[in-house]
Model the fold of this input.
Amino acid sequence: MDGPYLAAVDIGGTKITVSIANISGILVKLYRPVQLEGDNLAVPAQVDFLVGHACEQIGIERDEITALGVSTCGPFGIRDGELVLVAPNLCGGLANERGIIPNDWTEIPLQRELSRIYNKIHIENDGISAVTAERMFGAGKGEDNVVYITWSTGIGSGAYVDGRLIKGKNGNAPHIGHIYLVDDGPRCGCGNFGDMEALASGVAIARDYESRVTSGDVTAECTTTVDVTTEGVMAENVTAENVTTEDVTAESVTAEDVFNLFRMGDPKAESVITNAARYFARGLVSINAILDTQVFIIGGSVFMNNRHILLPLVKEEFYKSFPALSKDVEFRPSALDSYLGDLAALCLVMPDDWGRQWQEKRPWEFAPESIVLGTDK
Amino acid sequence: MDGPYLAAVDIGGTKITVSIANISGILVKLYRPVQLEGDNLAVPAQVDFLVGHACEQIGIERDEITALGVSTCGPFGIRDGELVLVAPNLCGGLANERGIIPNDWTEIPLQRELSRIYNKIHIENDGISAVTAERMFGAGKGEDNVVYITWSTGIGSGAYVDGRLIKGKNGNAPHIGHIYLVDDGPRCGCGNFGDMEALASGVAIARDYESRVTSGDVTAECTTTVDVTTEGVMAENVTAENVTTEDVTAESVTAEDVFNLFRMGDPKAESVITNAARYFARGLVSINAILDTQVFIIGGSVFMNNRHILLPLVKEEFYKSFPALSKDVEFRPSALDSYLGDLAALCLVMPDDWGRQWQEKRPWEFAPESIVLGTDK
Done:
């Protein structure tokens, strides 16, 4: 296989994914759960380990990597002129409502550590890199005013305005998950009360359902078995093939469980999901008022697995708002979906000629199966 | 006086202001209440009348005007490729909670009508033109990430992100007044319930106080006379020189009355203003999450007349939000204040050399007194 080679790194709240590509396509892709123990160099060390491991898989040396594109959850801060991650889902020392993050980090010196090893790196917020990829290869081609939103465990976004990517002073624009939508309300991992992520994310959906179950209002009427395969898409984070309302306890409920209960006719699940969709839509009203966008592209597992439920609810609420601002806005699902993370990181460092060839040939559709690594090196 | 001459037009919800300038300074400035009767060509006709009248005042012909800069309330729509105003405070045919606008217009064809008369026109939303002026001549000099917010009868804004003005598909970015802040809540003129303008604008402050008074909870303890002159600034929209709580009835209360009652120790006024400031701050949290800005410049009569009350309240609430996004943000009052409208419209059409000279000499500080025209032509 011929170089040059690019490495794509996608750092999320639950896993780190690395892939290596040359102009012909994605050659290898692997991921492992993100390990949040040890000192605050643990994440960059895992990135380096995974890049090294990916190189081994395709028989190249680490120094044959021309550039590293890093797409990561944020937000970012700047320390001594270099980008640091101040992400509450990685750094246990930041506001964190459940104490589930087993470290006391307040920031991760990602740029400093990676630039010690790699000559050329480009780090962006995963919303920013995702909108770049959707505009280059997916549902945002040719659009000057387009916002990508990921509706997943958390909620993130990236935007082009007037044909240009917006970044802001620390590269955090647009951090839509942390806009306020209600006066009081549940606490977000970031410490805010009543922001969009606290009201509409996958975590919020699961928590809202849990709180209604644990408050004693247990649904009794639905005990039929449910096939969790819906619209041909296997829900990502359902652990069993079948689920009944009785299986769903306050300990174990996931957002996908709540959607399955919704499909079974559980009124509590319907209420939780309708609420979440309404808040999601009201968040889009706010970002649209601020950016005057043309197209919303929505991705992320919560949306992509349940879009036939969610999209009508979102549109209904969105178009209720001030028509002069809302009426011409379009909604599209992500066109890259499971390839989005790789393409998002790759397009940060991809040369123009390479980009044009990929636009035409779409080689990511022929990427090899992912290799899943455990938590131990 | 030598040309070339530029005309600056500022269209607000209550008045239209026109000034004419040459490179030496502002030569004439006049305004009249905006007349909202007749057909939907009434506003462009008033603009033309005022420009003609201003030309007469300085002894020039209308065709000596090189370019017309128009700064106007929005939002904007596009009709047949030309900009139209779809502003609920001008167009009675749009959502309008009180029925106080005496027309049934749904849009105003401003660009079409003005371009029939003037060769060169540039129309922008007043938030966009204001931030341009503050960045060129005022509190935003040298800033790449700066948001101007007007806190007045309504709430509007304009923003630079990464050193570039953002406009969006119809030039409405960022229409911050129409972002949602609460679940239900008072109705905005735009039809939204619970948006920023409905909760924090001058109109909202007056209405909130009124509703508390008419609900029977009349403040009895404060009957002392108040001097409405505060910090050397005469409050713009107080009609009497002195006010007591007993003068304030549900029919007549203005935002400035509420601030004066606040200064008298009226607990209801204190509660209303504290609430409004809190919502204003929460709106800034949302726009900051989306734009990752560095500097907020705040202007408008509600803020400028009462900034020693409002700024501490706004900052207190703002910095409670997610520190990774909020901590480095600065607040500055508008540096152009009563000149802002003229400069906002002028800078849309001002040549570069002229701009540089004005940055140095600040000739607007020597502008003549405004001429006030009545409502009849």
